[in-house]
Design goal:
Radius of gyration of chain A: 15 Å
Shape of chain A: globular
Strand content of chain B: 15-25%
Number of strands of chain B: 22
Protein name (chain A): Purine-binding chemotaxis protein CheW
CATH topology of chain A: OB fold (Dihydrolipoamide Acetyltransferase, E2P)
Mean pLDDT of chain B: 79
Largest sheet of chain B: 6 strands, mixed
Helix content of chain A: 10-25%
Oligomer: heterodimer
Helix content of chain B: 40-55%
Distance between the termini of chain A: 34 Å
Mean pLDDT of chain A: 84
Number of strands of chain A: 10
CATH superfamily of chain A: CheA-289, Domain 4
Domain CheW-like (chain A): 1-136
InterPro entries (chain A): CheW, CheW-like_dom_sf, CheW-lke_dom
Largest interface: A-B, 26 and 34 residues
Structural class of chain A: mainly beta
Distance between the termini of chain B: 60 Å
Low-confidence stretches of chain A: none
Largest sheet of chain A: 5 strands, mixed
Order of helices and strands of chain A: EEEEEHEEEEEH
Strand content of chain A: 35-45%
Number of helices of chain A: 2
Radius of gyration of chain B: 27 Å
Pfam families (chain A): CheW
Strand order of the largest sheet of chain B: 14-18-19-17-16-15
Number of helices of chain B: 20
Chain lengths: 137, 625
């Protein structure tokens, strides 16, 4: 199984395959984006590229609360952007990608698959679905 | 598996080169029309057709190769006869059109030439008489499906500068493939420049659905096409198209590449020199090395910008043909003169300029020229600006007619109108819905489009001016930056947010005392040089909480929709020269943002287009009310 970086959104555990992650940053400055919807937390200067930082828990409808200071920068092919999460987890290698919880999620949750790891469910984030959602909103 | 990869690599090149060949072919044909026995031009035409054939054949686009071959044959006959007949010119022009359609279909589909089976329902064929087709068998192949009615929902991209104009263009495209039975919003509304997001069209057409979609999606600013009975699939078209813009390629002259390589060499030498100076703590050498480095970096910057530059000729190529067709349609004798095609501009500016240029020429032929006249396009450099002038020696614009129309539309009060100079007066022509043309014409509606032209020019950080007098023709002057990469901005602060406004959009800045402001119809206004400026809060436009206006109020005077307004900001910070970064998805989806920049101290600021911001904010504001 491919290694996955885990993170918490609210009290659920989510994950992204390492191949879709460019880096994890602790940005020096987060600059406001004029006229952007609330889930755009701001923009960072990431090695000269201007990247938007999105409030992932906010987009997916988790209650607002504290956010981890570190942000995940993804390179989803179609877009480069950063996410804030509730709390950053660790890199794990899931046991099984055939959790019985699969297929029970609503499409608006942007969950691609559910993985099992040491008895915990890791919800693999569906980046394409998420980007499509940003495209439409 | 290597072959498809190779093909994909060359496809872009094929598309751009063939486009250039077709442009110059139609230009040569229009030239030949004036002098049908010019052997040099005939020979040049033959070579172009031959190149298109060769390239299409080697790419495996059989249908296009065949079509080009037919043109080549016809040209060969003409060459031997030593002259070309008017009928042959018409046939050749239609042949070029057909090739262009095939090319655009190719570009839209992203796959090799269409199956011969569905070429019978190809876009545009219906409108040609059968004997006009150069490859005749194409029309006989395969049965035509009978016309069917479909309801199309066409989504206009959110960032579109002039959505109504895009919608009208889409309609025109649809009219080429079938009969438009019903449109919502209706044409009248679209002609007024209404902010349309989705166009609903009832279309009767025998063309295949994929083909209609491909033709629409190939147009700029069309975000998606849906059918009313399949709305649940909404959005399926979007992800695939999202990134297409970024796949554009640029061809670079080898000379320029050599210069870049030389520069890199010099930079490497300078690095070594600096390293040595640093190791030896030789301050004088360090300083000399840094001076050298700064010169080289400036030079590098200049050359890299050159890579993006293209001559104006790349968008004027199709103008002679267009003016010729327009002149025929209107029965006027129009001569087109183009000068300064070698002037270079940034590629992205040229792309945005192509449509406005066509708009202006159409207006000139339709409304300027009466029976016979000259339309001229002239371009030249002035310092770091490029000036483009479109002029005609036609009837000109009567200021009295403009005044009367302005009063009728209630744009300006009569007193102010009397005091208005002609420069400001003609600027009124760029207000949406304004027109002085007495009747509607088929080609350019009723002078619609000057607002579109103005918006496009301003979006690029330029401005435009209309000069005219009755009986003395009309001149439209566009002032454009050479390159969009570096611009001057005014930095302002609202709350904890700093935003940049392109200096070309700023008329002036000033600070006024609170008690100089007056309220008029619940709108704060300021009397300034005989003019009453409405004031808008930038805070509100950026959807930030308002704050009471007190003390000195900093204002930025900008023009929006042809009218000066004062933007109320919290603080004027100052002018900067910045390198503009274009925005990528998802930032490019946000309304009113035209770019971003990293300031010298590493801070990120966004560059706003006040008009775009206001238009984006309007529906939300109405919603709240």
């Amino acid at each position: 199984m491919e290694k996955v970086l885990t993170f918490e959104l609210g009290d659920e555990l989510y994950g992204l395959p390492l191949s879709s992650i460019q880096e994890v940053v602790e940005p020096a400055g987060l600059y406001p984006i004029p006229s952007a919807p609330a889930w755009y937390l701001g923009a960072i200067n990431c090695h000269g590229t201007i990247l938007p930082i999105l409030d992932l828990p906010g987009i997916l409808g988790f209650v607002s609360g504290p956010r981890d200071g570190k942000m995940i920068v993804i390179d989803g092919g179609a877009a480069r952007l950063g996410f804030c999460v509730t709390r950053l987890g660790e890199i794990v290698e899931p046991d099984d990608d055939n959790s019985p919880a699969n297929g029970r999620q609503l499409p608006e949750c942007c969950v691609e698959r559910v993985l099992d790891h040491c008895g915990r469910m890791i919800h693999l984030l569906d980046l394409t679905a998420l980007l499509d959602r940003l495209d439409r909103d | 598996m290597e072959r498809p990869m190779d093909m994909a690599k060359y496809r872009e090149l094929f598309l751009s080169e063939t486009r250039e060949h077709l442009d110059s072919m139609s230009r040569l044909l229009v030239e030949l029309e004036k002098q049908p026995d010019d052997a040099d031009v005939l020979a040049a035409l033959f070579r172009q057709a031959h190149s298109v054939k060769g390239m299409a054949a080697s790419m495996g686009y059989g249908e296009m190769a065949e079509q080009a071959h037919a043109l080549e044959d016809l040209l060969d006959d003409c060459r031997r006869a030593g002259r070309i007949s008017p009928e042959a010119i018409d046939r050749l022009l239609r042949g070029c059109d057909r090739l262009e359609e095939q090319l655009e279909a190719l570009a839209a589909e992203g796959k090799p030439a269409p199956d011969p089976a569905d070429s019978a329902v190809d876009v545009g064929i219906e409108e040609l008489p059968a004997n006009a087709l150069i490859v005749e068998d194409v029309d006989e192949d395969g049965p035509k499906s009978s016309p069917a009615e479909t309801i199309l929902l066409i989504d206009i991209a959110e960032h579109a500068v002039a959505p109504a104009a895009r919608a009208l263009l889409a309609l025109r495209e649809l009219e080429r493939v079938g009969e438009v039975l019903q449109v919502r919003p209706d044409r009248e509304t679209l002609l007024q420049g209404a902010p349309v997001r989705t166009l609903r069209v009832v279309l009767r057409s025998s063309a295949a659905a994929e083909r209609i979609d491909a033709a629409l999606l190939a147009m700029a600013d069309i975000a998606g096409v849906r059918r009313e009975d399949e709305t649940e699939q909404e959005g399926t078209e979007l992800p695939r198209r999202r990134r297409e813009d970024s796949e554009r390629s640029v061809r670079v002259r080898t000379e320029l590449l050599d210069q870049l390589i030389n520069l890199t060499g010099e930079l490497l030498t300078t690095r070594t020199r600096l390293q040595t100076a640093h190791r030896e703590r030789a301050v004088a050498d360090l300083e000399a090395g840094l001076d050298q480095l700064s010169l080289l970096v400036d030079d590098l910057h200049y050359r890299v910008l050159q890579v993006r530059m293209m001559p104006l000729a790349s968008i004027t190529g199709r103008l002679p043909r267009m003016v010729r067709d327009l002149a025929r349609k209107t029965g006027k004798r129009v001569e087109l003169r183009i000068a300064g095609e070698e002037v270079e501009l940034d590629r992205s500016i040229l792309e945005e300029l192509a449509d406005p240029l066509i708009h202006m020429l159409r207006n000139a032929v339709d409304h300027g020229i009466e029976e016979e006249g000259v339309v001229a396009v002239r371009a030249w450099r002035e310092k770091d600006l490029v000036l483009i002038e479109v002029s005609d020696n036609g009837r000109g614009i009567d200021p009295e007619v403009v005044r009367a129309r302005a009063v009728q539309l209630g744009l300006v009060d009569a007193e102010r109108l009397r005091a208005m100079g002609e420069r400001d007066l003609f600027a009124l022509l760029c207000r949406p819905g304004f027109s002085t043309a007495a009747q509607v014409t088929e080609t350019s509606g009723r002078g619609v489009g000057m607002d579109v032209v103005k918006a496009a020019v301003e979006h690029l950080g330029g401005d435009m001016e209309i000069l005219s007098a009755p009986g003395e023709g009309t001149r439209i002057l566009l002032r454009l930056p050479l390159s969009v990469a570096i611009i001057k901005i005014l930095l302002v602060a609202v709350g904890d947010c700093q935003v940049a406004i392109p200096i070309t959009r700023v008329h002036r800045t000033l600070e006024v005392a609170r008690d100089e402001l007056q309220s008029s119809g619940r709108q704060l206004v300021l009397r300034l040089d005989e003019e009453v400026l409405p004031l808008l809060s930038l805070r509100k436009m950026l959807r930030m909480p308002g704050r009471p206006v007190a003390g000195n109020v900093p204002l930025v005077v900008v023009e929006m929709r042809g009218q000066r307004v004062g933007l109320v900001v919290d603080q004027l910070i100052g002018q900067h020269e910045v390198f503009v970064k274009s925005l990528e998805f998802p930032l490019d989806r946000l309304p009113g943002l035209t770019g971003a920049s990293v300031l010298g101290d590493g801070r990120v600021v966004f560059i706003i287009d006040p008009q775009g911001l206001l238009e984006a904010g309007r529906p939300a504001a109405e919603h709240a009310a």
